[in-house]
Amino acid sequence: MSGAAERPRPASGPSAGSGPAWRDRVTDALEMVSEAICFLDAEDRLTWLNSAAERLLERPAGTLVGRAVWAEFPELGRSHAAVTANREARRTGTVQHLEMFAPTLDRWFEVRVLPVEDDVAVFFRDVHERRALDDERAAESSLLRAVLNALPARTAILDADGTILTTNTAWQERRPPAGQVSGDRGDDYVALCRAAGRAGHRGAQAMADGLEALLAGRTRSFSLDHAWPGARQSGGETWWHMQAFPVDDGPRVVVTHTDITDRVSAEQRQAWQARHDHLTALPNRAGLHEAISAALAEEPGGAVTVLFMDVDGFKQVNDTLGHEAGDLLLRELASRLAHRTRPTDVVGRLGGDEFVVVARDCPAAGGLHLAERFRAVFDEPFELAGSRLPVTVSIGIASSGPGTTRPEDLLRDADTAMYAAKSRGPDRHLLFTPALRTELEERWQVASGLREAVLLEQFTLHWQPVVDLATDAVVGCEALLRWEHPERGRVPPAEFVPVAEEKGLIEAITRWLLRTAVEQGAAWERAGLPLAVGVNVSALHLASGTLVDDVLGALGAGRLAPRRLVVELTETSLTSDPEQAAAQLGELRRHGVRVAIDDFGTGYSSLATVAALPVDTLKVDRSLVSGLPEDRTVPQAVLGAVAALGTALGMDVLAEGVETPAQLAAARRVGCTHAQGFHLSRPLTAAELTPLLLAGRSRTGVPCLPAPPG
Ligand code: C2E
Ligand code: CA
Ligand code: CA
To answer: Which of 127, 132, 326, 647 has the fewest C-beta atoms lying within 10 Å of its C-beta?
Structure first.
């Protein structure tokens, strides 16, 4: 205001004319202040204004002094507040205070009207900035309130000391059930959390700690998912996500609690489903992996043993009784298994008909014991679709060693052992050894090579002569399959026939075999050797239903008389479904083909079953023949009984595996009609055998065949 000091005094004003001297002093002083000031006389004429007022009103004093304020500023006259303030100041003699907006100046003013004798002094200042800011603030705070209330989460704003300053509608309306931290405006929220924590709620304790750290500025935000027990109408627990962060860098803090119960229960449901099998509600592969991992990690943990079970012939149950019956069987099985385990053991289902039991603190010997116990689960047949079904399982057992850490290793070993057990026949269990893995790997190699073998015709036939004991003449030859493996050399049938059966290759191989054998039979016939050729046929071929067509097809193509072909089927393959077997064998025999029961005496079939089958020859297994030294009467009696029975039924009875002259003599003595074995001839190729057979024929029927070496 330095410039104001030199300013000439206004021509009229409070100091003009004969006014008292104090006025001059006052106006001098008033000139100096930053607030705008003007004086109005009794007629509301402007008598003086300071330079601040000139600036604010944007008019020089010269153009205003002496003029009526209402005329100079018409909008003032329209302002009810302004007119009233002026009147009331003069009437009451008290200071009037107002804030008004001046449209022409586009500004807010704060005005005080002060009566001074007959005049009034008007103090005014520009409060536009402040007003604008206030409006903005007001708008802002109502916006904030609206936003707060729109938040579905329970939300509170805490003061620096943790006191609740304000809460939103959700906070007030969605009161948590008793026992949970709530609180109202004015409450110390941190103290409430602390108290709930002391009452035993760990979530509340963590909340108090987190809020304290945040309020003290030690952290920038805090969040926590926690559960409150026994809430909601359902009585189950509720889950909350708590979040807290400072408002505008603090010290105040916003706290929100979001109800995440639905999400958490959906997640928990999903997590459960991801680890369980929907059919049996048992742990699935993922669940079992977890269980094995946990058992392996136990400290101090004993060995963990895994039993891998696979239902024998489950596919047949599904195929013949339907999938519903199959599902029923699996559920029943699951419940039986679950009742046989200790509480600490875990029963799970890997899928299909594969079940796994994880036994903690159980060494291999215990695993074998468990396997026995589980096999007893199947003693009682299963009631399915109105019938009682006997069911067995194959079980593989694997136990952890000191180095076992991965659940998949244990599962794989148990699986390997199960596979090996199954390949030895149904209803068995085996403990894993590394040798079993080698066996499995070899089987794999065999399996992959076999497909090629079929295509590349890597098979050959060896022939073993059959001798008629009445004439000592060779009357037939059994075809024995050999696989000439390009790297492994000659592979015996015991190594690859089971694999070929398992991989569904045996039918194709047998068709090749039938054709080749029939061709050889026809070739011998042309050479003057009227031999019967024997062909081994797998039980699976019988089950597949194509056997009759395949046999007749080969005979037709090779032009061999049907009576020169002998189809050999094992005792067990015929007795598993005797009706089906009888139908096909009967059909073959009607066409003149001959049928032999192979390996007789190794199965458990009753003689009555065998007697009912349409069969030409009983081939008595080597195991009954090898115990035949003359000084032992029991084996002779057994073989004699079989021979007597066969002959009574009109069958030929052939002793297999005759290795010594004594065995040959015994077989002859007890009444066997035919014999086969290394003593008579080893299996030979057709090229080796044909000249010998031709030479033998010239020597009037006495077998002239190579004896075993030594
Ligand atoms: P199998 O039908 O009982 O065949 C007889 C087996 O006993 C043959 O073994 C033969 O070499 C052997 N053998 C013959 N005489 C004696 C003897 O005096 N002492 C001893 N210790 N063994 C003797 P191979 O050729 O290894 O065949 C084994 C089994 O493989 C056969 O038993 C048969 O079940 C199966 N097999 C062989 N060829 C075929 C085939 O073409 N198809 C099918 N499905 N299975 C076949
Ligand atoms: Ca045979
Ligand atoms: Ca045999």
So the answer is: 132
Q: Judge whether residue 220 has pLDDT over 70.
A: yes
For residue 564, report the distance from its CA to the centre of ligand 2, in Å. Answer: 16
Residues 6+ apart with CB under 8 A from 98: 81, 82, 85, 110, 111, 113
Averaged pLDDT of the chain = 86
Confidence of residue 343 (pLDDT cuts 50, 70, 90): confident
Q: How far is the CA of 701 from the centre of ligand 1 (A)?
A: 25
The H or E element spanning position 129 is helix 128-150
* Ligand 1 atom 34, closest CA: 536
pLDDT of residue 499: 87
Give the distance, in angstroms, between the CA of residue 683 and the centroid of all CA atoms in the same chain. Answer: 54
User: What is the whole-number distance in angstroms between the Cα of residue 266 and the centre of ligand 2?
Assistant: 63
- Rounded-to-integer distance, Cα 627 and Cα 177, Å: 86
CA 550, CA 512: separation in Å to the nearest integer?
A: 10
* pLDDT above 80 for 417: yes
Tokens linked to 305: 């043993």
pLDDT tens digits for range 129-176: 888 888 778 777 888 888 888 888 899 999 888 989 889 999 888 777
pLDDT at residue 332 greater than cutoff 50: yes
The per-residue pLDDT for 179 is: 63
- pLDDT attached to residue 381: 87
Sequence-distant (≥ 6) Cβ neighbours of residue 25 within 8 angstroms: none
More confident residue, 128 or 468: 468
**Can you tell me whether residue 618 is helix, strand or coil?**
strand
The secondary element (H helix, E strand) that includes residue 429 is strand 429-431
| Dist. CA 570–CA 593, nearest whole Å | 17
CA atoms within 13 A on the CB side of 637: 4
Sign of CA dihedral 608, 611, 612, 618: positive
Whose CA is closest to atom 15 on ligand 1? 677
Of ligand 1's atoms, which has the minimum distance to the CA of residue 676? 15
Q: What pLDDT does 606 receive? A: 63
**Locate tokens 């039979």: which residue?**
521
- Per-residue CA distances from 267 to 271, 272, 660 (Å): 6, 8, 75
Does ligand 1 lie within 6 Å of residue 101's CB atom?
no
pLDDT in tens, 692-703: 998 875 443 344
Q: Compute, in angstroms, the gap from residue 418 CA to the centroid of ligand 3.
A: 28
Q: Is the peptide bond before 251 cis (omega within 30 degrees of 0)?
A: yes
Residue matched to tokens 């408002």: 247
The Å distance, Cα 501 to ligand 3 centre, comes to 18
Nearest ligand to the C-alpha atom of residue 602: 3
Report whether residue 480 contacts ligand 1, using a CB cutoff of 6 Å: yes
* Strands 532-536 and 565-570, sheet pairing: parallel
**Is the CB of 455 inside a 6 Å radius of any atom of ligand 1?**
no
Report the share of the chain in percent with pLDDT over 70. 91
E strands, 229-326, are 238-246, 253-259, 305-311
Residue 22, both tokens: 């104090």
**What is the 8-class DSSP label of residue 469?**
T
